[in-house]
Amino acid sequence: MLDAHPAPLVQVEDLKMYFPIYTGVLRTQTGNVKAVDGVSFQITAGQTLGLVGESGCGKSTVGRAMLRLYEPTAGRVLIDGEDVAKMAPEALRRKRPSMQMVFQDPQASLNPRMTLAGIVSEPMDEHTDWSREKKTERVYELMDQVGLNRRFVNRYPHEFSGGQRQRIGIARALALNPRFIVCDEPIAALDVSIQAQVVNLLEDLQEKLGLTYLFISHDLSMVRHLAQKVAVMYLGRIAELSPSRDLYARPLHPYAEALLSAVNEPDPVLAARRNRIILTGDVPSPANPPKGCNFCTRCPKVMDICRSVKPELAEVEPGRLVACHLYTTQADAGSAGATEAKERNQQGVSQ
To answer: Which of 122, 222, 265, 338 is the most exposed place for a label (fewest CB within 10 A)?
Structure first.
């Protein structure tokens, strides 16, 4: 019998990434920038989790900390059952082939002094003892997979367009047959006409190779197309984590609601009916976040408890997790009311 709930390939538990602040002549540490402050989620094998939010909320830092490109301050990152955050350097090196990254800027992430063949074969040079012929064969195979002409194998990055450069980055990430790939805004630096091609390529590769993605983006319409689940981040924390269809149909967290109200609607009739939510004020500094909910300074539905108590990410509907007192207080009130009703029923029976 098949397991209805397969074990997740990726589990992130209370991940924190703080960057120290040094001031004064003696460079004394006087605080921390809390770029990621207690993030938790899971990704099932073969699926895509979209991570969205405005610029500076900590999305890219989550991806880099998961792959140990940054050393996490705290938390666990389990990939295929192994805690990457606590691995020794040699064990981490052996783990690298199974987890890779596609970077945001294909121009900056490719070595301008290396040819396409050198860039794509570099992971093989580091992690395998393959012969030169086998590496060349693998490079050609990867070029076919990502839609690059084999005649381009000895060209340099500056000779390619932005979309082609990103395909080279994807080929490099696939070189060692990884199971998990972090896509850090892979379409943000590309022309709109090229973005759909790259996203379709990522989808095709996922289907053929059984890949698992963390897709980081601020393009909400593209995430809707690609991801099965979506996590909405705000100021280093997850505000809402829901199935993609449910989130876009009815966001629960006030920030997710405001964020999705800004997505362009192609239907003019639906666009005219839409209630655009304009948030006032600036995003607080991650070096000095609010005492309570991170969103309390801009939330249109703020309550007194929001300014003093930080809400935890909790399941408020089947499969939907929200960090908001609007739902936790309602749940507490509902459970209290149910307890009172039960007590009254018991008293009535005893009488």
So the answer is: 338
CA distance 102 to 123: 14
pLDDT in tens, 40-95: 999 999 999 999 998 889 999 999 999 999 999 999 999 999 999 999 999 999 99
The whole-number pLDDT of residue 271 equals 64
**Residue 83 Cα distances to 11, 47, 70, 72, angstroms:** 9, 20, 15, 12
Q: Which residue has the tokens 């089947």?
A: 318
Question: Residue 140 corresponds to which amino acid?
Answer: Y
Rg of the chain over all Cα atoms, to the nearest angstrom: 23
> How far does Cα 63 stand from its chain's mean position?
6
Task: Characterize the bridge pairing of strands 82-83 and 74-79.
Answer: antiparallel
Those residues with Cβ within 8 angstroms of residue 250's Cβ, 6 or more apart along the chain or in another chain: none
229 three-class SS = strand
DSSP category for residue 295: T
Cα(334)–Cα(139) distance, integer angstroms: 60
CA max distance for the chain: 90
Half-sphere CA count of 178, side-chain side, radius 13 A: 28
- Tell me the whole-structure pTM to 2 decimals: 0.88
10 Å Cβ neighbour count for 293?
27
Phi, psi of 161 (to 5 degrees): -80, 175
